[in-house]
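Ops channel
N.P.: pipeline sanity check, posting one input/output pair.
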């Protein structure tokens, strides 16, 4: 009995546990008495399943220790959102004026909660930006 790989669609001998072409574990043999031939996977299914997924490290929000005016919160937000730090500072000042100080309170809470960006992470970002 021939089994077809669910990942690449190639035929494999019934005694194999892994696909000889791509190495994916094959579905276990059916124990029922019915004998039916498994059909290979369609090419569209094959291409969507065989693509490897690359997971990026999630971004983390830090306070910047190197570009501070008050506490580095605006610089950290600008780095995280990939915005100009002066734009973030201007928005923060205007929002503080119009909110009656609520944004200033939120700023100091963020200052207390956010960790400072590790030196190694800052150096790796700086070197990757200079290479572009």
């Amino acid at each position: 009995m021939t089994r077809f790989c669910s990942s690449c669609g190639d035929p494999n001998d019934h005694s194999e546990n892994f696909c000889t072409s791509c190495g994916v574990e094959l579905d276990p043999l059916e124990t029922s008495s019915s004998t039916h031939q498994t059909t290979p996977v369609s090419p569209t299914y094959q291409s969507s399943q065989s693509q490897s997924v690359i997971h990026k490290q999630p971004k983390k929000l830090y306070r910047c220790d190197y570009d501070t005016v008050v506490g580095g919160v605006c610089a950290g937000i600008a780095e995280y959102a990939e915005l100009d730090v002066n734009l973030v500072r201007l928005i923060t000042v205007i929002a503080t004026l119009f909110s009656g100080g609520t944004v200033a309170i939120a700023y100091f809470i963020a200052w207390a909660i956010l960790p400072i960006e590790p030196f190694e992470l800052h150096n790796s970002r700086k070197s990757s930006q200079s290479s572009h």
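N.P.: looks fine end to end. Confidence is low (pLDDT under 50) at residues 30-36, 44-50.
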